């Protein structure tokens, strides 16, 4: 079984489980509407790959759409989760700045390649938000297990993804022109990391507790 098949299976499994939580458990807020994000991933990164003839859309255009959506989605859920005025101000400023740079900036070069700003947008936001969540959690320790918090798994996933994505994306076009074999190796390694991120998301969904019940207890 190829890593791409495993990746797609994990993403779809996480999406289906999130839908189960939505329909049968009424866990929408508890999972921070993660099913919406997972649906976008399926529409951008799975369906066009497997049905490319039916979706003749440039992959870079789809990836840019994914970047814009992810900036809004993760910016919003962390803005709600981390109850810190300083974080919320900086988070809002960072999200708005990155959106403006991506929407009004020169996103593609003459060869149709995504530029540097678009490439580093998500890692910048993910690093800031995940590290901020860890710090916020350390400053606000409670009796709940950290593994029961979905954001522990989300933050762990996007932090891991961001670190590896920087090494995968920044030299991408250089390697494409000068060392395609090394680029293929880097892409394969990143596919493993990508799969790990969604496995962490799935584990986080499994550990979700009913917040209404826990309050009564």
TrEMBL record:
Membrane-spanning intervals of the chain: 6-24, 33-51, 63-80, 87-104, 116-138, 150-170, 182-208
Keyword tags: Membrane, Transmembrane, Transmembrane helix
Superkingdom as given in the UniProt entry: Bacteria
Protein name: Uncharacterized protein
Organism: Chryseobacterium profundimaris
